[in-house]
Amino acid sequence: MNDPNGLVFADGVYHLFYQYHPDGLTWGPMHWGHATSRDLLHWDEQPIALYPDDLGMIFSGSIVIDHDNTSGLGHNGKTAWVAIFTHHDPLKEKAGGNVHQYQSIAYSLDDGVSWTKYAGNPVLPNPGIKDFRDPKVFWHDDTRRWVMSLAAGDRILFYSSPDLKNWALESEFDGFDIATGNVVECPDLVVLDFEGRKRGVLIVSLVTDAPNGGSGTRYVVGDFDGYRFVAEHDDVRWLDHGPDNYAGVTFHNSGDQLLLIGWMSNWAYAQAVPTAPWRSAMTLPRELRLVMMDGKAVLSQSVPSVFDGQTSLDENWPSDLTAVWREAGGTLNLCLKAENQPSFELTLSNDIGDRMVIGFDAMEQHYYIDRRNAGQNSFSPDFPIRAAAPRVGVGNGTDIKLYFDKGSVELFADNGTTTMTCLNFPRADYTSVELQSFVLPVNGRLTSAPL
Q: Are 172 and 158 in contact (CB under 8 A)?
């Protein structure tokens, strides 16, 4: 599995569709898998939603609920869910040229259980752009029409439609300043009310050149009037500084709660990680909001409260860290708080020498996750790294939330304005946890507790 697609919330159920190759552990003929949840924590796998056909494989896209039946696809009192996705024709690609990707739609009248592909596909033919994919669609209230963000090489194209079938090009945004040969993928434009006006947040994923190597996801804050996007800053902002958060998109129809899920991997080694019979997973859901920091509107991310830990600790904390870790069985959520930003390290280890280190360097003012000695890493030279993330803003103390699973850690620091997601593959479960502080001021203290 890779990119999340068609995230949608309806009638108390979260739907996660995703890029899926059902017949192998590596990338292959792409389908849309489907999973559902009522709490974002417990998920049930559903039957495959979309299969390849004569027009090609089913690449990434999105789903909208057409409440007003603008498409005319709803009937007999049933509301149509409309999937907008990229068809990728491998035969046309092999033959050469740049017209092998185009946009199509499918619809469901039973809340995403079964799907019918539209007879008039493709609804948006390729104008001659090699990388022309990953449509993310939302309803724009002010202009009363659908808006599509589409990845096109090194830029994003914005289209509009009254009915999800007929699309007109409105504008493009190319303010990414990326290296020649790199391309953007999986765009997502969301509009938020913030500080008395509407702001657009454009999220895009880059195939290469992320801050810690390989692929990664950036975002830009600006204004969107339904026709064009104008950035309000020129500094580069990463949604996640860790190596393993890519292609994240938000849920449709989730109301005031703006939720994003990403693919927890990196194209530098995604097809080689040492897992079987499964390969790849998604990040935890993240609730997005804008906050003002140093006069700038920046994204803040937090994990829904359903993931908070329930363990209670006595006053001996943090001396009980190892005992709590062992009791939790390798899945644990921690909150670390410190006064005056001391440097510190949290080290997970086992009896065979695997060590993963998570810390904060007060001198360099960055967080880091060091997995160079954290177990299996010979499958790729790009995997054994010490990933670092600079602080977005400096406050009065250090505030870190950590979410551990068997082979991953997700870090949220400084009110969620700095995040890191990092895979690791220890050869045996971690059995020991040590928290150590360095250069702690005399009047300072480092405390920790379950979320």
A: yes
3-state secondary structure of 203: strand
Report d(CA 391, CA 18) in Å as an integer.
Answer: 32
The span from the CA of 439 to the CA of 343, in Å, is 6
Question: Given its phi and psi angles, is residue 12 left (phi above 0), alpha (psi -120 to 50 degrees) or beta?
Answer: left
Amino acid at 284: L
109-152 per-position pLDDT tens digit: 999 999 999 999 999 999 999 999 999 999 999 999 999 999 99
* Helices first, then strands: H and E counts in the chain: 2, 30
CB 164 within 8 Å of CB 146: yes
Q: Residue 218 and residue 108: Cα distance in Å, rounded? A: 32
In 100-215, beta strands by DSSP E: 101-108, 116-117, 132-140, 145-152, 155-161, 168-173, 184-194, 197-206
Closest CA to 89 of 38, 114, 55, 66: 55
Tokens representing 238?
């990463």
For residue 438, what is the enclosing H or E element?
strand 432-438
What whole-number distance in Å separates Cα of residue 43 and Cα of residue 39?
Answer: 8
User: Does the bond joining 318 to the residue before it have cis omega, within 30 degrees of 0?
Assistant: yes
Q: Could you read off the pLDDT of 278-313 as tens digits, one per residue? A: 999 999 999 999 999 888 999 999 999 888 764 444
The first and second tokens of residue 92, run together, are: 């046309």
Phi, psi dihedrals of residue 306, rounded to the nearest 5°: -60, -20
Q: In DSSP terms, which residues pair with 190 in a beta bridge?
A: 201
3-state secondary structure 82-106: EEEEEEECHHHHHHCCCCCEEEEEE
**Residues belonging to the active site:** 3
- 305 φ, ψ (degrees, to nearest 5): -65, -15
Q: What is the token pair recorded at 436?
A: 């150590």
